[in-house]
Amino acid sequence: MNTSLAIRAMQHSDLPRILQIQALCYTEVAPESADSLNAKLQASSSTCYVACRQGAVIGYLISLPGRFESPPELNATTCDLPPNPDTLYLHDLAVVPEARKTGAGRLLVEKFIAQTRDLNFSRASLIAVQDSHSYWQRYGFCSVVQSSALKAKLSTYGSNVEYMERVA
After folding, report:
1. Residue 65 in contact with residue 86, Cβ under 8 Å?
2. Is this model's pTM higher than 0.90 or not?
3. 3-state DSSP call for residue 9?
4. pLDDT under 50 in the chain at which residues?
5. Cα 159 from Cα 27, distance rounded (Å)
6. Radius of gyration for the chain, computed over Cα atoms and rounded to the nearest angstrom
7. Hey, which bits of the chain come out as E strands?
8. Is 148 exposed, middle or buried (0-12, 13-18, 19+ CB in 10 A)?
9. Dist CA 67 CA 45 (whole Å)
10. Residue 1: per-residue pLDDT
11. What pLDDT, on a 0 to 100 scale, did the predictor assign at position 3?
């Protein structure tokens, strides 16, 4: 692991760099708009982070308290958190290609898992895109059987996606 890595809270001034990283990393699904990312950050700034190396943002993680049966739509320009969330939903994780294998992704996920415990959620959830389900299995996430309503919601995330959960 590179000891010059640091995880910090995401700030609105990070959004232009996050949009660049997103465009580099997501090749099978359309990147989200600045409005969509801003809405998520405004809704839950305490659960969104960036990874920095020598002060430069090299990765990010966006997560939101939510309802397990209703993950957020991709690229929604508004983000209203539910009154009684039952999961911490990991919406997005990306690390620039040249910084992969530095430990940045692992540190971001570990921060997310710790935040899940700190917020007293008994589970975390995510939608694995771009055949990333095996990556998430390393962190204890398992695939969930999808109802037809859930399948319809996940269709906006592209093909070959899996809804996954991690129970505490």
Report:
1. no
2. yes
3. strand
4. 1-2
5. 12
6. 15
7. 5-9, 48-53, 56-66, 87-95, 123-128, 142-143, 162-167
8. exposed
9. 18
10. 47
11. 57
